[in-house]
Amino acid sequence: MSRFVITFLIWAICYATCLAQVSRPDTIYAFFSSAPTQVDGQLNDPAWQQAISISNFTQRELNIGEPATERTEVAIVYTTKTLYIGFRGYDSEPGKLVAREMKRDFDFDLEDNFEVIIDTYK
Question: How many distinct structural domains can be found in the chain?
Fold first, then answer.
C-alpha cells in the first residue's frame, strides 16, 4: 500500500471515532435562579424543576459512542455567585455499584463514577 492510502485510512479511523462520541443535542443550557438552591441531594427545588435536563449521553469506555447503558440526567442551575450541577444516575442493579474511594484524586478506572469536566478555554 502506498503511504497516502495508509495515511488516509488512519485519518478516516480517527475521524470516525471522534464523530462517534457526539450525540445531539450536544449542548446543555444553565437555568438562572434568583432563589438559593438547597444542596441536599434531592433536586426538588423549583429551580431544578424549571431547568432543562439532558440525557443523551454516550459511552466513553467500553463501547465508545454507543448509548449509555443506564439512564442519566444532568441539569445546571446558577445564581449570581454559584454554579450547581445536578445529576440523576439511574441503575437497574444498584447493589452492584462500586464506589469505595471517596477521596480526591482516586483511580477512576476501578470504580463506577460520573465526571464533570469544565473547559474554561472555549
Answer: 1
User: Does some domain include residue 117?
Assistant: no
Nine-digit cell string for 85: 450541577
Per-residue pLDDT tens digits of the chain, which is 122 residues long: 566 555 555 655 655 555 545 556 678 899 999 988 888 989 999 999 999 999 888 887 778 888 888 888 999 999 999 999 999 988 898 888 776 666 666 666 666 677 787 888 86
Task: Count CB atoms within 10 A of the CB of residue 53.
Answer: 16
Which domain range does residue 32 map to?
3-110
Residue 92 belongs to some domain of the structure? yes
User: What stretches of 4-122 adopt beta strand conformation (E)?
Assistant: 31-32, 72-78, 83-89
Predicted TM-score (pTM) of the model is: 0.68
Half-sphere exposure of residue 64: CA atoms within 13 angstroms, side-chain side: 7
In a domain, 122, yes or no: no
